[in-house]
Structures are given as structure tokens and as C-alpha cells.
């Protein structure tokens, strides 16, 4: 591992631990703060002995600074978390970081693209919600997502735009996340959520990845202490997601073949049928109708959300991670870039479970069980 990565990780971890350069310099036995400053600025190399001592002081294994399968503060995450506590999030972020770092490392070894090419969108904090919805609609067309974008969004993001999409079993309260790791974009989706919620979360995270420079998202979106500007960014993201998943023309074409019922009592069943077609929640489709002027706000307000809640039943969960991620992991195992046990450690499974994930994606298991 190069010195640039080591110093970057050292700097990021020091700040995360709330230590000043003076604090850590003193603990390391340096004569003054300038020595550590020179290390963090790349003017001086850190010795192996100094690195071991720093690891002990900062509470990590020395491999934290040198392991290419660790993100170690190099990425920016934004989590959709409904729970009030973030106690478990730091550990899970480290786990998710290993997935993304492993993908990047093996991609580099393999010579495959690890540079995401998702187009930025022309929205700002002052954009209207209508503009956000229209931009989502336009992005759906630009990406060639078809009439039911929820069915193709994940595969198009991965295969055409090198944006990693991972379905995972997240910690409680987390529905999804966006991650920027240098030129690599990644989206994490809680596969245990209802299908409509998974679709909406993915489209919501696309907004954040496409507007990160203009409107950087919060590390935790569920933080109730955020300013009005951040709340507005999230509302823009939701309207963008609505337009992306339910493009205006696709919705109007569907309605042409399935007219809106005149009887208010029949409306909930009709909305659920339409939402099922677009693979979104009933509530999301109801408010998309309002945005398109198909349904008035008063009429929408009379539709009980409980009556349009989609039935999950025994619908199968999407396989863990993604086919592209598992293909890359399999290549690493076959080519000796990654041991089977290290691969299982990265994804947090037993060897048998790792084999099951390959099979779930229709891939040959690259090792003997």
C-alpha cells in the first residue's frame, strides 16, 4: 500500500476519533505537531514502527492503514435511516466499505471499469419539486429505462454506467445508502424492504449521486436536527425518484388502457393495480397522479393509505449483492487475487453460504465446497 493511502487513512481516522494533531503527535512521542503534519501532507513518510504505534493508539489493526480491501475513511456515504440511533451504523458502514473496496481493488486487478459515468442533473436547492420530477423523467429516458423503470434501473446502472448496486441485509432502520468512492459510485439497498420501497430508495439515491457536488447529502438522512435546506434536498430527491420511476408518458399510456374509475370506492383497488404494474408503492403512485394533474389533492387525501398498501406476501427477496459484484469476486478467487476464506470474510458468510450466493445469481461457484 502506498504512503499516500496510509497518510489519508491516518488523517481521516484521527479526525474521526476527535484527536488533534497535537494530541496524536504527543502520544506518538513526536517532538512537535509539525512532524505529524508533514506525514499527513505527504512531506514525510511514516515508518512501520510509527504506524504500528498509531494503530494501537487509534484502536485499529495496522492492516486498517494498508489493506486494499478497506475503505478506511476514503469514501463518502449518505444513509437513509429511519431509526433515531446511529449506534450500529459505524460498524455496518465499515462492512459495506469492505464490499465496495474489494470490488474496486479486484476491478483494477482485472482491468475492468471502476469509473462511474452517471450524468449530473441540472437541479439546485432552488429548483421546484415539479422541476425535480421532470428531471427524473428525463433521466429515465436518457438511461433508456423503458416504460417500467423499476425493472431495469439496477442493471442499467451497473452494466452501462458502472455504478455498483448492492442488495444487502442492513442494520435495523436503514433502507439504503449512496456512496462516492473517488470516481466510483455505489448504491446499497436493504433487500428486506418491500419491492416498492426498494425501487424508490434506489431512484432516490440516484438523485444524490447525480447532484452530490451541487447538493451534498447528509451522512444520515434520518437526522431530525437538519436544516430546512437539507429537508428540501430530500423532498427534491423524492420528487426526482417519482418522475424517474413513473415517467409521465408511461403513466398516461397506462391510464389510457386502464381509465381512472369514476367511483371513489373503486379508486384504491385501481391505484394498487397501477402501482403493481410500475413496481412502486401505492402511496407513491397516488401522489404521482397528483403531480401529473390526473388526481386532485382533495381526492387523493380521501384515499386511505392503508387501502393502497401493497401486499408483500411471500415474495422472494433479491439475491444478496449483485451479479456483477459476484462475478468480480469469483474472478478474484479463480485468479488467486483473493482467497476463498477472505472472500467469505468480506461478504460475512460461511463458505457454503458464499457458494449459495453465486448460485442465486446463476454463476458457477469458483471453488470446491
UniProtKB/TrEMBL annotation:
Give every HTH cro/C1-type domain span: 10-65
- InterPro entries associated with the record: Cro/C1-type_HTH, IrrE_HExxH, Lambda_DNA-bd_dom_sf, Rad_response_metalloprotease
Question: Which Pfam families does its entry note?
Answer: HTH_3, Peptidase_M78
Q: Name one GO molecular function term.
A: DNA binding
Database matches in PANTHER family: ANTITOXIN HIGA1, BLL7220 PROTEIN
The UniProt family comment states: Belongs to the short-chain fatty acyl-CoA assimilation regulator (ScfR) family.
Please give the name of this protein: Helix-turn-helix domain-containing protein
